[in-house]
Amino acid sequence: MIGNRLKTLRKEKGYSINELAAKAEVSKSYISYIERGIQQNPSLHVLAKLANSLETTVEELLYQRNNGIDDEWISIINRGIEQGVTKRELIQYLDFMKYLKQKELINESKSIKFRTAIHRSL
């Protein structure tokens, strides 16, 4: 969706809606409408102004090239990078979450076996 892409690019540049509006000479309410999905079909003229202000192309503004990863995931990862999270720390976190899920599955399996054993003994 163009709104999410616009918002992501704007934030990557560090612009507020007001700053982008002034730079692109597009009203801040119109930019907000695009970002929120209220305006889903902005004119090519407006898209060109926004793309130019964001130092990108209309094509890049319209098309996501992130292999199906949605903007929210990209935003979360960017936030982690901004907060100083290293690749190694992220990998350790993912490994830890995998461990917890496996532990949870093992405990769930044990619980099911225990309940089955009790049921059979009755």
UniProtKB/TrEMBL annotation:
CDD domains the UniProt entry points to: HTH_XRE (cd00093)
Signal peptide: none
SMART domains, A to Z: HTH_XRE
Gene3D superfamilies: lambda repressor-like DNA-binding domains
Pfam annotation, one family: HTH_3
Domain HTH cro/C1-type: 6-61
Boundaries of every Sin domain copy: 60-98
PANTHER family: HTH-TYPE TRANSCRIPTIONAL REGULATOR (PTHR46797), METHYLPHOSPHONATE SYNTHASE (PTHR46797:SF1)
Official protein name in the record: XRE family transcriptional regulator of biofilm formation
